[in-house]
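Lecture notes, part 5. Sequence design as translation. It can be helpful to think of inverse folding as translation between two languages: the language of shapes and the language of residues. The source text, in structure tokens, appears below.
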């Protein structure tokens, strides 16, 4: 059975951790869901500004439901695909208010049923807002996991499937935030590889 350096990697990553912008929404299920949905194809720094503008007008899912589509578009611009996201936010707000009595769903199946919510967003909400063990795989988690030799995958969806097989559950809650932080700090492949080598995480 292959031996993995999980403890060493997480220790080094924690030591070098720098807070990622969207973590400020912490345990708030509504703000975590909406900001994560907005973050798709958008830098966290841009998402944070747009999310805060939106939350000033709509601090709850019920208030979000009352906004008109053009108003939401203006508030969340310039996040990527802001027009599509505005449409999805209105649909999502109506579904949550009507079908879930204003409660943000806390299961993967229910979250994925919402407009614009994919598996990565669902896992991140479960992990961050509800403290459920889940691995949210984005570009950073996918890339670093492959560089570490933990997986050999071409797509993030496949990476998640492989990671849940080998990574002990005690590490799942920290994986996305730590890997994203390291990935953002050492964005180029050369810098990332050098960082991993300097810390003896890869040869």
């Amino acid at each position: 059975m292959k031996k993995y350096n999980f403890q060493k990697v997480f220790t080094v990553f924690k030591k070098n951790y720098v807070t990622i912008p969207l973590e400020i929404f912490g345990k708030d299920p509504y703000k975590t869901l909406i900001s994560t949905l907005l973050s798709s194809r958008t830098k966290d720094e841009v998402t944070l500004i747009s999310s805060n503008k939106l939350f000033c007008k709509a601090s709850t899912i019920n208030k979000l439901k009352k906004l008109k589509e053009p108003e939401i578009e203006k508030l969340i611009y310039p996040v990527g695909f802001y027009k599509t996201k505005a449409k999805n936010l209105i649909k999502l707000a109506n579904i949550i208010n009507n079908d879930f009595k204003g409660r943000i769903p806390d299961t993967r199946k229910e979250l994925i049923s919402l407009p614009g919510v994919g598996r990565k967003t669902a896992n991140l909400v479960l992990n961050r807002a509800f403290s459920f063990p889940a691995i949210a795989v984005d570009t950073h988690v996918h890339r670093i996991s492959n560089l570490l030799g933990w997986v050999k995958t071409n797509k993030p969806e496949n990476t998640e499937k492989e990671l849940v097989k080998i990574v002990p559950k005690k590490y799942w809650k920290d994986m996305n935030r730590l890997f994203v932080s390291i990935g953002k700090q050492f964005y180029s492949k050369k810098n990332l590889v050098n960082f991993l080598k300097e810390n003896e995480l890869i040869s």
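The translated text above is only one of many valid answers, since several sequences can fold into similar shapes. Residues 82-99 form the longest helix (18 residues).
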